[in-house]
Design brief:
There is one protein chain. The two termini are 37 Å apart. This protein folds into two domains: 176 residues, 3-Layer(aba) Sandwich (Rossmann fold), CATH 3.40.50; 78 residues, GMP Synthetase, Chain A, domain 3, CATH 3.30.300.30. It is built from seven helices and 20 strands. Helices cover 24% and strands 33% of the residues. With 315 residues, the protein is of the alpha/beta class.
Length: 315
């Protein structure tokens, strides 16, 4: 889909747009989002970042997905100038320079922005699509960028909460205007958007109040070993700094006759990429035994969704 294709869809007589879920927890599916929901989402972001006719938005994401579609809608509703490029992991490589008032990227694009600074000023940067590793988050905090992690999904027409990226790793997400939060009996987040039906997620949270939460991980990724709950994202943040730079990995589990499940690490590439024995020894000194990976397995290539998310497996 091109920008013009989506603008034509936005202006047609239908009261919804067609979007697709990412497929990170199952087969991607087509869903219909009401244009009113999409408009309300865009207006929240416009209000928060004070976007107007004098603003400049830049699109380096595909209009096929909700994050790209929303950048287009924000420009249409605010009157802001929108420039664009073909999506790639080297965003702004041909950008002529100047000020960008809002740029949305995924973590792989963020790495290139940090590695290859150019002649531009980004006033506001929003990052979504997947979790930001702790070491990358620290690089952003030290870069001086006014950057935010986003929380949202296709079903909510992009983000409903933001988290300022600072050196502190335990800052909560905060709700955008008109959004409230609760949680269900699984401790999973429930999103309340004014007069829309609540959206029940599979994301386990520590709810601070009805506008702030800490994200712990997905309930369908939780590992239960010896009756203890282990959240893979928390383990990954603890151990990422001891792995070689650019190592792609995730934490998952496999069956264990005594404990039910045991934690293992899956690394993309071949076994020469890291010294597995040394890493496992370091991990045993780093964290409690129940969280420590008991083995490291290697896969030549990870399965990914069309939007680039790793499809996590249990073994």
């Amino acid at each position: 889909m091109t920008i013009d294709d989506f603008i034509a869809e936005w202006h047609n007589d239908c009261d919804y747009i067609v979007a697709h879920t990412s497929g990170s927890t199952g087969t991607p599916k087509e869903i219909h989002l009401s244009k009113r929901l999409v408009r309300d989402s865009a207006l929240r972001t416009i209000e928060f970042f004070s976007l107007s006719e004098s603003s400049h938005l830049h699109l380096c994401l595909s209009p096929d997905y909700i994050a790209g579609k929303m950048m287009i809608v924000r420009s249409l509703l605010s009157g802001a100038t929108l420039t664009d490029e073909l999506p790639s992991n080297t965003p702004l490589s041909s950008f002529k320079g100047g000020v960008i008032d809002l740029l949305a990227v995924v973590p792989s694009q963020l790495i290139d922005l940090l590695n290859n600074p150019k002649d531009y000023k980004i006033r506001n940067l929003i990052i979504g699509g997947s979790a930001i590793p702790a070491d990358l988050r620290l690089r952003v905090a030290n870069s001086g960028l006014n950057a935010y992690e986003t929380y949202g999904m296709t079903e909510t027409a992009s983000h409903v909460a933001l988290r300022k990226i600072r050196q502190e790793s335990d800052l909560p997400y905060f709700a955008l205007p008109g959004i409230k939060f609760s949680k269900d009996k699984r401790d999973c987040l429930v999103i309340h958007m004014n007069d829309y039906d609540p959206v029940v997620t599979n994301d386990v949270v520590d709810l601070i109040d009805d506008e702030h939460f800490l994200l712990r991980g997905r309930v369908d990724n939780v590992i239960i070993s010896g009756g203890l709950k282990i959240h893979p994202l928390e383990v990954e943040d603890k151990i990422r700094h001891i792995l070689p730079d650019a190592t792609t990995f995730y934490i998952t589990s496999r069956p264990h006759s005594k404990w039910g499940e045991e934690v293992i690490m899956i690394v993309e590439g071949d076994a020469t990429k890291i010294d597995g024995t040394r890493i496992l020894t370091q991990l045993r000194d780093l964290m409690p035994p129940y969280q420590t990976p008991k083995d490291i397995l290697f896969e030549s290539h990870f399965l990914r969704t069309d939007s680039g998310k790793i499809v996590r497996k249990k073994f």
